Amino acid sequence: MKYPEIPLAQSILQICKAKGLKNIIISPGSRNAPLTIGFSIDPFFNCYSIADERCAAFFALGIAQQTLEPAILVCTSGSALLNYYPAIAEAFYSQIPLIVISADRPTTKIDIGDGQTIRQRNVFENHSLFNANLEDEASSKNDLLIQEAIRISYSKKGPVHINAPFEEPLYNTVDETSYKPLITHYKPERKPEINFDLYKAVFQNTKKKLVLIGVQNPNVLSEEILQKLGNDPSIVVMTEITSNVSHPNFVSNIDTLITSFTEEDFENFKPELLISIGGMVVSKRIKALLRKYKPNAHWHVDEHRFYDTFQALTNEIETNPQTFFEAMFADNHFLESSYNDSIKTIMKSRAIGHEKYLKEIPYSDFMVFDQIWKHLPSHIQLQISNSSAIRYAQLFKTPSEIDVFCNRGTSGIDGSTSTAIGAAVANNKPTVLITGDISFLYDSNALWNNYIPENFKIILINNGGGGIFRILPGHNETPVFNTFFETEHCLTAEHLAKMYRFDYETIANETELSPKLKAFFNSKNKGILEIFTPTKINQDILKQYFKAVTI
Protein backbone atom coordinates (compact mmCIF):
# COMPACT_ATOMS: atom_id res chain seq x y z
CA MET A 1 0.00 0.00 0.00
CA LYS A 2 1.17 3.54 -0.72
CA TYR A 3 1.60 6.25 1.91
CA PRO A 4 2.15 10.00 1.63
CA GLU A 5 5.84 10.86 1.85
CA ILE A 6 5.32 13.67 4.38
CA PRO A 7 5.83 12.32 7.94
CA LEU A 8 3.25 14.65 9.50
CA ALA A 9 0.58 13.29 7.16
CA GLN A 10 1.67 9.73 8.05
CA SER A 11 1.26 10.57 11.72
CA ILE A 12 -2.28 11.93 11.29
CA LEU A 13 -3.38 8.94 9.21
CA GLN A 14 -1.97 6.33 11.58
CA ILE A 15 -3.49 8.01 14.65
CA CYS A 16 -6.94 8.29 13.04
CA LYS A 17 -6.79 4.60 12.14
CA ALA A 18 -5.60 3.60 15.60
CA LYS A 19 -8.55 5.49 17.13
CA GLY A 20 -11.05 3.76 14.83
CA LEU A 21 -12.17 6.86 12.95
CA LYS A 22 -13.61 5.62 9.66
CA ASN A 23 -15.77 8.32 8.04
CA ILE A 24 -13.68 10.84 6.12
CA ILE A 25 -15.27 13.65 4.10
CA ILE A 26 -12.78 15.24 1.72
CA SER A 27 -13.11 18.38 -0.36
CA PRO A 28 -10.76 18.50 -3.36
CA GLY A 29 -7.64 20.64 -3.17
CA SER A 30 -3.89 20.57 -3.51
CA ARG A 31 -2.49 21.42 -0.07
CA ASN A 32 -4.46 18.55 1.50
CA ALA A 33 -3.15 16.06 -1.11
CA PRO A 34 -1.00 14.11 1.41
CA LEU A 35 -4.07 13.42 3.54
CA THR A 36 -6.36 12.78 0.58
CA ILE A 37 -3.93 10.22 -0.83
CA GLY A 38 -3.47 8.50 2.52
CA PHE A 39 -7.12 8.30 3.49
CA SER A 40 -8.46 7.31 0.07
CA ILE A 41 -5.92 4.54 -0.58
CA ASP A 42 -6.47 2.77 2.74
CA PRO A 43 -9.61 0.53 2.58
CA PHE A 44 -10.03 0.94 6.36
CA PHE A 45 -11.56 4.38 5.77
CA ASN A 46 -14.93 5.27 4.25
CA CYS A 47 -14.06 8.28 2.10
CA TYR A 48 -16.55 10.70 0.57
CA SER A 49 -15.66 13.45 -1.90
CA ILE A 50 -17.86 16.55 -1.52
CA ALA A 51 -16.67 19.55 -3.55
CA ASP A 52 -18.56 22.33 -1.73
CA GLU A 53 -16.98 22.67 1.72
CA ARG A 54 -20.12 24.06 3.36
CA CYS A 55 -22.14 21.09 2.08
CA ALA A 56 -19.32 18.72 3.02
CA ALA A 57 -19.36 19.94 6.61
CA PHE A 58 -23.11 19.51 7.00
CA PHE A 59 -22.92 16.12 5.25
CA ALA A 60 -20.34 15.10 7.88
CA LEU A 61 -22.61 16.51 10.58
CA GLY A 62 -25.42 14.23 9.37
CA ILE A 63 -23.15 11.18 9.51
CA ALA A 64 -21.95 12.03 13.03
CA GLN A 65 -25.52 12.79 14.11
CA GLN A 66 -26.47 9.20 13.31
CA THR A 67 -23.32 7.28 14.27
CA LEU A 68 -22.67 9.36 17.43
CA GLU A 69 -18.97 9.16 16.54
CA PRO A 70 -16.73 11.86 15.09
CA ALA A 71 -16.68 12.29 11.33
CA ILE A 72 -13.49 13.79 9.89
CA LEU A 73 -13.47 16.75 7.50
CA VAL A 74 -10.40 17.33 5.32
CA CYS A 75 -9.86 20.48 3.26
CA THR A 76 -7.17 22.47 1.52
CA SER A 77 -5.76 25.75 2.78
CA GLY A 78 -7.26 29.21 2.47
CA SER A 79 -10.94 30.17 2.36
CA ALA A 80 -11.99 26.51 1.96
CA LEU A 81 -11.70 26.13 5.71
CA LEU A 82 -13.99 29.07 6.46
CA ASN A 83 -16.87 27.40 4.63
CA TYR A 84 -16.97 24.78 7.38
CA TYR A 85 -17.93 27.36 9.99
CA PRO A 86 -21.78 27.15 9.85
CA ALA A 87 -21.66 23.40 10.44
CA ILE A 88 -19.00 23.78 13.13
CA ALA A 89 -21.26 26.19 15.03
CA GLU A 90 -24.20 23.80 14.61
CA ALA A 91 -22.12 20.88 15.91
CA PHE A 92 -20.95 22.96 18.86
CA TYR A 93 -24.47 23.83 20.04
CA SER A 94 -25.98 20.46 19.09
CA GLN A 95 -23.21 18.47 20.80
CA ILE A 96 -22.27 16.51 17.68
CA PRO A 97 -18.66 15.26 17.34
CA LEU A 98 -16.76 16.56 14.30
CA ILE A 99 -13.03 16.67 13.59
CA VAL A 100 -11.73 19.23 11.11
CA ILE A 101 -8.27 18.56 9.69
CA SER A 102 -7.21 21.55 7.62
CA ALA A 103 -4.10 21.55 5.48
CA ASP A 104 -2.10 24.75 5.81
CA ARG A 105 0.99 26.43 4.41
CA PRO A 106 4.09 26.20 6.59
CA THR A 107 4.17 28.93 9.23
CA THR A 108 6.88 30.82 7.32
CA LYS A 109 4.45 31.31 4.41
CA ILE A 110 1.66 32.98 6.41
CA ASP A 111 1.04 36.70 5.81
CA ILE A 112 3.81 37.15 3.24
CA GLY A 113 1.52 37.24 0.20
CA ASP A 114 1.65 33.53 -0.64
CA GLY A 115 -1.36 32.23 -2.57
CA GLN A 116 -4.39 30.59 -0.97
CA THR A 117 -3.14 31.46 2.49
CA ILE A 118 -5.05 32.84 5.48
CA ARG A 119 -4.61 32.78 9.26
CA GLN A 120 -5.97 29.30 9.94
CA ARG A 121 -4.74 28.74 13.48
CA ASN A 122 -7.61 28.91 16.01
CA VAL A 123 -10.02 30.07 13.31
CA PHE A 124 -12.93 28.26 15.02
CA GLU A 125 -11.84 29.26 18.52
CA ASN A 126 -15.25 30.54 19.63
CA HIS A 127 -17.07 27.36 18.60
CA SER A 128 -14.58 24.50 18.88
CA LEU A 129 -13.81 22.46 21.97
CA PHE A 130 -10.10 22.14 21.17
CA ASN A 131 -7.62 23.57 18.65
CA ALA A 132 -4.53 21.59 17.76
CA ASN A 133 -2.10 23.84 15.88
CA LEU A 134 0.52 21.41 14.69
CA GLU A 135 4.18 22.19 14.10
CA ASP A 136 5.61 21.84 10.60
CA GLU A 137 7.45 18.60 11.36
CA ALA A 138 6.11 15.34 12.78
CA SER A 139 6.82 14.98 16.49
CA SER A 140 5.52 13.35 19.65
CA LYS A 141 4.18 16.78 20.65
CA ASN A 142 2.05 16.82 17.50
CA ASP A 143 0.97 13.23 18.12
CA LEU A 144 -0.32 14.13 21.57
CA LEU A 145 -2.17 17.21 20.27
CA ILE A 146 -3.90 15.16 17.56
CA GLN A 147 -4.99 12.53 20.07
CA GLU A 148 -6.17 15.11 22.58
CA ALA A 149 -8.37 16.66 19.89
CA ILE A 150 -9.84 13.25 19.06
CA ARG A 151 -10.40 12.42 22.74
CA ILE A 152 -12.22 15.68 23.40
CA SER A 153 -14.45 15.35 20.34
CA TYR A 154 -15.44 11.86 21.51
CA SER A 155 -15.88 12.60 25.19
CA LYS A 156 -17.27 16.14 25.10
CA LYS A 157 -19.40 15.62 21.97
CA GLY A 158 -18.49 18.55 19.77
CA PRO A 159 -16.21 19.93 17.05
CA VAL A 160 -12.42 20.18 17.24
CA HIS A 161 -9.89 21.61 14.80
CA ILE A 162 -6.51 20.17 13.79
CA ASN A 163 -4.44 22.52 11.61
CA ALA A 164 -1.62 20.75 9.76
CA PRO A 165 1.04 22.66 7.77
CA PHE A 166 2.50 20.83 4.75
CA GLU A 167 5.41 21.88 2.55
CA GLU A 168 5.73 20.91 -1.11
CA PRO A 169 6.14 18.44 -2.76
CA LEU A 170 2.66 17.27 -1.75
CA TYR A 171 1.91 14.32 -4.02
CA ASN A 172 4.92 12.06 -3.46
CA THR A 173 4.24 8.61 -2.02
CA VAL A 174 6.32 5.87 -0.41
CA ASP A 175 5.83 2.13 0.07
CA GLU A 176 6.56 2.17 3.79
CA THR A 177 5.91 4.72 6.52
CA SER A 178 8.98 6.55 7.78
CA TYR A 179 7.34 7.82 10.97
CA LYS A 180 5.72 5.88 13.78
CA PRO A 181 3.54 8.10 15.99
CA LEU A 182 3.33 7.89 19.73
CA ILE A 183 -0.09 6.31 20.44
CA THR A 184 -1.71 6.91 23.81
CA HIS A 185 -4.81 5.32 25.30
CA TYR A 186 -7.80 7.22 26.60
CA LYS A 187 -8.49 7.16 30.30
CA PRO A 188 -12.21 7.43 31.05
CA GLU A 189 -13.00 10.71 32.77
CA ARG A 190 -14.22 10.42 36.33
CA LYS A 191 -17.61 12.03 36.63
CA PRO A 192 -18.33 13.96 39.82
CA GLU A 193 -20.27 12.05 42.46
CA ILE A 194 -23.89 13.13 42.64
CA ASN A 195 -25.90 12.86 45.85
CA PHE A 196 -29.17 11.82 44.22
CA ASP A 197 -30.83 11.52 47.63
CA LEU A 198 -30.92 15.31 47.95
CA TYR A 199 -32.67 15.66 44.60
CA LYS A 200 -34.91 12.70 45.26
CA ALA A 201 -36.23 14.23 48.48
CA VAL A 202 -37.34 17.34 46.59
CA PHE A 203 -38.59 15.39 43.57
CA GLN A 204 -40.77 13.02 45.55
CA ASN A 205 -42.35 15.80 47.60
CA THR A 206 -43.15 18.29 44.82
CA LYS A 207 -46.71 18.21 43.50
CA LYS A 208 -46.20 20.28 40.34
CA LYS A 209 -43.25 19.05 38.30
CA LEU A 210 -42.76 20.00 34.65
CA VAL A 211 -40.37 17.87 32.59
CA LEU A 212 -39.43 19.62 29.34
CA ILE A 213 -37.60 17.56 26.72
CA GLY A 214 -35.78 19.29 23.86
CA VAL A 215 -33.62 17.84 21.08
CA GLN A 216 -32.63 14.29 21.97
CA ASN A 217 -31.43 11.16 20.20
CA PRO A 218 -33.77 8.15 20.06
CA ASN A 219 -33.67 5.63 22.90
CA VAL A 220 -32.14 7.93 25.51
CA LEU A 221 -34.93 7.05 27.96
CA SER A 222 -36.15 3.51 28.55
CA GLU A 223 -39.78 2.52 28.09
CA GLU A 224 -40.04 1.93 31.83
CA ILE A 225 -39.00 5.50 32.61
CA LEU A 226 -41.34 6.90 29.96
CA GLN A 227 -44.24 5.02 31.54
CA LYS A 228 -43.40 6.35 35.00
CA LEU A 229 -43.12 9.90 33.70
CA GLY A 230 -46.39 9.62 31.82
CA ASN A 231 -48.37 8.10 34.67
CA ASP A 232 -47.14 10.21 37.59
CA PRO A 233 -50.02 12.57 38.51
CA SER A 234 -47.60 15.20 39.78
CA ILE A 235 -45.67 15.42 36.48
CA VAL A 236 -46.50 17.12 33.20
CA VAL A 237 -44.13 16.12 30.41
CA MET A 238 -43.77 18.47 27.46
CA THR A 239 -41.93 17.18 24.40
CA GLU A 240 -40.71 18.78 21.23
CA ILE A 241 -40.94 16.84 17.97
CA THR A 242 -37.14 16.43 18.10
CA SER A 243 -37.25 14.80 21.57
CA ASN A 244 -37.85 11.33 20.08
CA VAL A 245 -39.99 10.19 23.01
CA SER A 246 -43.68 9.44 23.14
CA HIS A 247 -46.44 8.63 25.61
CA PRO A 248 -50.22 9.22 25.43
CA ASN A 249 -50.04 11.52 28.47
CA PHE A 250 -47.19 13.68 27.18
CA VAL A 251 -47.92 17.13 25.76
CA SER A 252 -46.39 16.78 22.28
CA ASN A 253 -47.75 20.02 20.81
CA ILE A 254 -46.79 22.65 23.36
CA ASP A 255 -47.95 25.74 21.48
CA THR A 256 -51.41 24.25 20.90
CA LEU A 257 -51.80 23.94 24.66
CA ILE A 258 -50.42 27.23 25.96
CA THR A 259 -50.97 29.85 23.24
CA SER A 260 -54.52 30.59 24.37
CA PHE A 261 -53.82 30.43 28.11
CA THR A 262 -55.31 33.15 30.26
CA GLU A 263 -53.44 34.72 33.18
CA GLU A 264 -55.29 32.35 35.48
CA ASP A 265 -54.25 29.38 33.31
CA PHE A 266 -50.63 30.48 33.44
CA GLU A 267 -50.71 30.77 37.23
CA ASN A 268 -52.32 27.34 37.58
CA PHE A 269 -49.84 25.77 35.18
CA LYS A 270 -46.71 27.36 36.68
CA PRO A 271 -44.52 24.47 37.88
CA GLU A 272 -42.87 24.36 41.27
CA LEU A 273 -40.00 22.36 39.77
CA LEU A 274 -38.82 22.45 36.14
CA ILE A 275 -36.60 19.59 34.95
CA SER A 276 -35.20 20.05 31.46
CA ILE A 277 -33.32 17.48 29.43
CA GLY A 278 -32.11 17.42 25.86
CA GLY A 279 -30.96 20.27 23.66
CA MET A 280 -32.50 23.38 22.16
CA VAL A 281 -36.22 24.11 22.43
CA VAL A 282 -38.16 25.35 19.37
CA SER A 283 -41.23 26.77 21.12
CA LYS A 284 -40.80 30.48 21.79
CA ARG A 285 -44.04 30.43 23.77
CA ILE A 286 -42.86 27.96 26.40
CA LYS A 287 -39.61 29.91 26.77
CA ALA A 288 -41.54 33.15 27.28
CA LEU A 289 -43.94 31.49 29.71
CA LEU A 290 -41.23 30.00 31.93
CA ARG A 291 -39.22 33.22 31.94
CA LYS A 292 -42.25 35.14 33.18
CA TYR A 293 -43.79 32.51 35.47
CA LYS A 294 -40.56 31.19 36.90
CA PRO A 295 -40.47 27.84 38.70
CA ASN A 296 -39.16 27.71 42.24
CA ALA A 297 -36.28 25.58 40.94
CA HIS A 298 -34.93 24.57 37.53
CA TRP A 299 -32.74 21.49 37.18
CA HIS A 300 -31.04 20.78 33.88
CA VAL A 301 -29.82 17.21 33.39
CA ASP A 302 -27.02 16.71 30.86
CA GLU A 303 -23.59 15.13 30.64
CA HIS A 304 -21.90 18.14 29.02
CA ARG A 305 -23.71 21.48 28.70
CA PHE A 306 -26.00 23.61 30.85
CA TYR A 307 -27.84 26.56 29.34
CA ASP A 308 -29.93 28.89 31.46
CA THR A 309 -32.59 29.08 28.74
CA PHE A 310 -35.42 30.08 31.08
CA GLN A 311 -33.32 32.38 33.27
CA ALA A 312 -34.19 30.29 36.32
CA LEU A 313 -31.46 27.62 36.42
CA THR A 314 -30.68 26.52 39.98
CA ASN A 315 -28.96 23.13 39.54
CA GLU A 316 -26.67 21.62 36.90
CA ILE A 317 -26.95 17.84 37.18
CA GLU A 318 -24.08 16.25 35.27
CA THR A 319 -25.39 12.82 34.37
CA ASN A 320 -27.47 11.17 31.68
CA PRO A 321 -31.28 11.46 31.91
CA GLN A 322 -31.83 7.70 32.26
CA THR A 323 -29.60 7.49 35.35
CA PHE A 324 -31.21 10.58 36.84
CA PHE A 325 -34.81 9.40 36.50
CA GLU A 326 -33.95 5.89 37.68
CA ALA A 327 -32.70 7.52 40.89
CA MET A 328 -35.75 9.79 41.19
CA PHE A 329 -38.24 6.95 40.77
CA ALA A 330 -36.43 4.45 42.99
CA ASP A 331 -38.94 3.25 45.61
CA ASN A 332 -41.20 6.08 44.53
CA HIS A 333 -44.88 6.18 45.39
CA PHE A 334 -46.73 8.71 43.27
CA LEU A 335 -47.94 11.81 45.08
CA GLU A 336 -51.57 12.76 45.01
CA SER A 337 -51.78 15.69 42.60
CA SER A 338 -54.16 17.13 40.03
CA TYR A 339 -51.37 18.68 37.96
CA ASN A 340 -51.25 16.05 35.22
CA ASP A 341 -55.02 15.53 35.08
CA SER A 342 -55.74 19.23 34.70
CA ILE A 343 -53.47 19.45 31.65
CA LYS A 344 -54.85 16.22 30.17
CA THR A 345 -58.37 17.68 30.36
CA ILE A 346 -57.29 20.78 28.45
CA MET A 347 -55.40 18.72 25.86
CA LYS A 348 -58.44 16.56 25.13
CA SER A 349 -60.39 19.71 24.39
CA ARG A 350 -57.55 21.08 22.25
CA ALA A 351 -57.41 17.83 20.25
CA ILE A 352 -61.09 18.13 19.37
CA GLY A 353 -60.60 21.74 18.30
CA HIS A 354 -57.50 20.76 16.30
CA GLU A 355 -59.34 18.15 14.22
CA LYS A 356 -62.38 20.37 13.73
CA TYR A 357 -60.29 23.30 12.49
CA LEU A 358 -58.30 21.20 10.03
CA LYS A 359 -61.54 20.07 8.38
CA GLU A 360 -62.56 23.66 7.78
CA ILE A 361 -59.40 25.32 6.40
CA PRO A 362 -58.65 25.92 2.70
CA TYR A 363 -55.63 24.62 0.80
CA SER A 364 -52.60 26.06 2.59
CA ASP A 365 -49.32 25.20 4.31
CA PHE A 366 -51.25 23.99 7.35
CA MET A 367 -53.41 21.62 5.30
CA VAL A 368 -50.34 20.31 3.51
CA PHE A 369 -48.57 19.48 6.78
CA ASP A 370 -51.71 17.76 8.07
CA GLN A 371 -51.85 15.55 5.00
CA ILE A 372 -48.13 14.79 5.08
CA TRP A 373 -48.44 13.61 8.69
CA LYS A 374 -51.43 11.44 7.78
CA HIS A 375 -49.40 9.71 5.05
CA LEU A 376 -45.95 9.37 6.66
CA PRO A 377 -44.69 5.77 6.40
CA SER A 378 -43.67 3.89 9.52
CA HIS A 379 -40.08 3.33 10.62
CA ILE A 380 -38.51 6.16 8.70
CA GLN A 381 -35.98 8.81 9.62
CA LEU A 382 -37.55 12.25 9.34
CA GLN A 383 -35.28 15.26 8.79
CA ILE A 384 -36.91 18.70 9.02
CA SER A 385 -35.51 22.05 7.92
CA ASN A 386 -35.71 25.16 10.06
CA SER A 387 -38.03 28.19 9.95
CA SER A 388 -41.70 27.46 9.25
CA ALA A 389 -41.25 23.74 8.52
CA ILE A 390 -40.20 22.80 12.05
CA ARG A 391 -42.84 25.10 13.56
CA TYR A 392 -45.69 23.49 11.62
CA ALA A 393 -44.31 20.04 12.42
CA GLN A 394 -44.49 20.88 16.13
CA LEU A 395 -48.31 21.04 15.89
CA PHE A 396 -48.75 17.38 14.92
CA LYS A 397 -48.30 14.16 16.87
CA THR A 398 -45.54 12.06 15.32
CA PRO A 399 -45.67 8.24 15.59
CA SER A 400 -43.13 6.85 18.05
CA GLU A 401 -41.53 4.62 15.42
CA ILE A 402 -40.36 7.66 13.42
CA ASP A 403 -37.03 9.24 14.41
CA VAL A 404 -36.95 13.03 13.99
CA PHE A 405 -33.96 15.34 13.52
CA CYS A 406 -33.47 19.04 12.87
CA ASN A 407 -30.44 21.35 13.08
CA ARG A 408 -31.62 23.29 16.13
CA GLY A 409 -28.18 24.14 17.50
CA THR A 410 -28.06 27.40 15.57
CA SER A 411 -31.49 27.00 13.89
CA GLY A 412 -30.01 27.99 10.51
CA ILE A 413 -31.46 27.12 7.11
CA ASP A 414 -28.04 26.78 5.51
CA GLY A 415 -27.34 23.03 5.66
CA SER A 416 -30.59 21.13 6.22
CA THR A 417 -30.47 19.18 2.95
CA SER A 418 -26.77 18.33 3.26
CA THR A 419 -27.28 17.14 6.85
CA ALA A 420 -30.24 15.01 5.81
CA ILE A 421 -28.24 13.36 3.03
CA GLY A 422 -25.34 12.62 5.39
CA ALA A 423 -27.78 11.14 7.90
CA ALA A 424 -29.36 9.01 5.16
CA VAL A 425 -25.94 7.67 4.17
CA ALA A 426 -25.17 6.71 7.78
CA ASN A 427 -28.57 5.19 8.54
CA ASN A 428 -30.21 2.32 6.67
CA LYS A 429 -33.72 3.64 7.31
CA PRO A 430 -35.57 5.38 4.49
CA THR A 431 -35.09 9.11 5.01
CA VAL A 432 -37.56 11.89 4.29
CA LEU A 433 -36.55 15.56 4.36
CA ILE A 434 -39.36 18.11 4.78
CA THR A 435 -38.11 21.53 3.78
CA GLY A 436 -39.19 24.97 2.70
CA ASP A 437 -38.28 26.58 -0.59
CA ILE A 438 -35.72 29.09 0.71
CA SER A 439 -33.88 26.47 2.77
CA PHE A 440 -33.87 24.07 -0.17
CA LEU A 441 -32.62 26.63 -2.68
CA TYR A 442 -30.00 27.95 -0.25
CA ASP A 443 -28.48 24.46 0.10
CA SER A 444 -29.07 23.23 -3.46
CA ASN A 445 -25.41 22.20 -3.81
CA ALA A 446 -26.28 19.44 -1.34
CA LEU A 447 -27.60 17.48 -4.33
CA TRP A 448 -24.12 17.65 -5.93
CA ASN A 449 -23.36 14.42 -4.16
CA ASN A 450 -22.63 10.94 -5.49
CA TYR A 451 -23.69 9.08 -2.33
CA ILE A 452 -27.43 9.83 -2.05
CA PRO A 453 -29.32 6.58 -1.29
CA GLU A 454 -32.27 5.59 -3.45
CA ASN A 455 -34.52 5.62 -0.36
CA PHE A 456 -33.94 9.36 0.19
CA LYS A 457 -36.89 11.64 -0.49
CA ILE A 458 -37.51 15.39 -0.28
CA ILE A 459 -40.86 17.05 0.30
CA LEU A 460 -40.40 20.65 -0.75
CA ILE A 461 -43.11 23.10 0.31
CA ASN A 462 -42.84 26.08 -2.01
CA ASN A 463 -44.91 29.09 -0.94
CA GLY A 464 -42.87 31.52 -3.00
CA GLY A 465 -40.68 32.99 -0.29
CA GLY A 466 -39.65 33.06 3.35
CA GLY A 467 -43.07 32.38 4.82
CA ILE A 468 -41.66 32.32 8.35
CA PHE A 469 -41.45 36.11 8.31
CA ARG A 470 -45.20 36.36 7.73
CA ILE A 471 -45.81 34.23 10.80
CA LEU A 472 -43.50 36.22 13.06
CA PRO A 473 -44.71 39.48 14.68
CA GLY A 474 -44.05 42.75 12.84
CA HIS A 475 -44.93 41.65 9.31
CA ASN A 476 -46.14 44.45 7.01
CA GLU A 477 -47.01 44.01 3.35
CA THR A 478 -44.50 46.41 1.75
CA PRO A 479 -42.00 46.22 -1.14
CA VAL A 480 -39.20 46.24 1.43
CA PHE A 481 -40.73 43.29 3.29
CA ASN A 482 -41.45 41.30 0.11
CA THR A 483 -37.94 41.78 -1.31
CA PHE A 484 -35.62 41.84 1.68
CA PHE A 485 -37.40 39.69 4.28
CA GLU A 486 -39.68 37.26 2.49
CA THR A 487 -37.42 37.00 -0.59
CA GLU A 488 -40.16 36.57 -3.16
CA HIS A 489 -39.21 34.31 -6.07
CA CYS A 490 -40.66 32.20 -8.89
CA LEU A 491 -38.11 29.38 -8.77
CA THR A 492 -38.86 25.66 -8.67
CA ALA A 493 -36.84 22.47 -8.18
CA GLU A 494 -37.75 20.99 -11.55
CA HIS A 495 -34.45 21.51 -13.34
CA LEU A 496 -32.35 20.72 -10.28
CA ALA A 497 -34.20 17.41 -9.98
CA LYS A 498 -33.51 16.63 -13.63
CA MET A 499 -29.83 17.60 -13.38
CA TYR A 500 -29.25 15.44 -10.29
CA ARG A 501 -31.44 12.55 -11.49
CA PHE A 502 -34.21 12.75 -8.91
CA ASP A 503 -37.76 11.71 -9.71
CA TYR A 504 -39.85 14.87 -9.68
CA GLU A 505 -43.56 15.43 -9.07
CA THR A 506 -45.65 18.45 -8.12
CA ILE A 507 -48.82 19.18 -6.15
CA ALA A 508 -50.75 22.41 -6.58
CA ASN A 509 -54.16 21.83 -5.01
CA GLU A 510 -56.08 19.90 -2.35
CA THR A 511 -57.35 17.25 -4.76
CA GLU A 512 -53.84 16.12 -5.65
CA LEU A 513 -52.55 15.92 -2.08
CA SER A 514 -53.56 12.47 -0.88
CA PRO A 515 -53.04 10.40 -4.06
CA LYS A 516 -49.70 11.98 -4.93
CA LEU A 517 -48.38 11.67 -1.36
CA LYS A 518 -49.27 7.97 -1.40
CA ALA A 519 -47.56 7.44 -4.74
CA PHE A 520 -44.49 9.40 -3.64
CA PHE A 521 -43.99 7.37 -0.47
CA ASN A 522 -44.60 4.10 -2.33
CA SER A 523 -41.94 4.86 -4.94
CA LYS A 524 -38.64 2.99 -4.64
CA ASN A 525 -36.62 5.82 -6.20
CA LYS A 526 -35.10 8.94 -4.70
CA GLY A 527 -37.39 11.82 -5.48
CA ILE A 528 -38.50 15.40 -4.91
CA LEU A 529 -42.17 16.18 -4.36
CA GLU A 530 -42.66 19.92 -4.73
CA ILE A 531 -45.88 21.18 -3.17
CA PHE A 532 -46.91 24.67 -4.24
CA THR A 533 -48.99 26.56 -1.67
CA PRO A 534 -50.49 30.06 -1.57
CA THR A 535 -48.21 32.80 -0.32
CA LYS A 536 -50.53 35.19 1.48
CA ILE A 537 -53.10 33.21 3.46
CA ASN A 538 -50.85 30.90 5.48
CA GLN A 539 -50.16 33.31 8.34
CA ASP A 540 -53.88 34.05 8.88
CA ILE A 541 -54.78 30.36 8.92
CA LEU A 542 -52.04 29.61 11.45
CA LYS A 543 -52.92 32.53 13.72
CA GLN A 544 -56.60 31.62 13.67
CA TYR A 545 -55.73 28.03 14.60
CA PHE A 546 -54.63 28.98 18.11
CA LYS A 547 -57.99 30.66 18.72
CA ALA A 548 -60.00 27.88 17.12
CA VAL A 549 -58.55 25.06 19.26
CA THR A 550 -59.86 26.77 22.40
CA ILE A 551 -63.41 25.40 22.43
UniProtKB/TrEMBL annotation:
Occurrences of domain Thiamine pyrophosphate enzyme TPP-binding (ranges): 403-525
Quote one Gene Ontology molecular function term.
manganese ion binding
Top enzyme category: transferase
Coiled coil location: none
Q: Matching Pfam families, A to Z?
A: TPP_enzyme_C (PF02775), TPP_enzyme_N (PF02776)
The record, for PANTHER family, names:
2-SUCCINYL-5-ENOLPYRUVYL-6-HYDROXY-3-CYCLOHEXENE-1-CARBOXYLATE SYNTHASE, PROTEIN PHYLLO, CHLOROPLASTIC
Q: Kindly state the subunit structure of this protein.
A: Homodimer.
Give the family this protein belongs to, as stated in its UniProt record: Belongs to the TPP enzyme family. MenD subfamily.
Q: What is this protein called?
A: 2-succinyl-5-enolpyruvyl-6-hydroxy-3-cyclohexene-1-carboxylate synthase
Species whose genome carries this gene:
Paenimyroides tangerinum
Taxonomy of origin reads:
Bacteria, Pseudomonadati, Bacteroidota, Flavobacteriia, Flavobacteriales
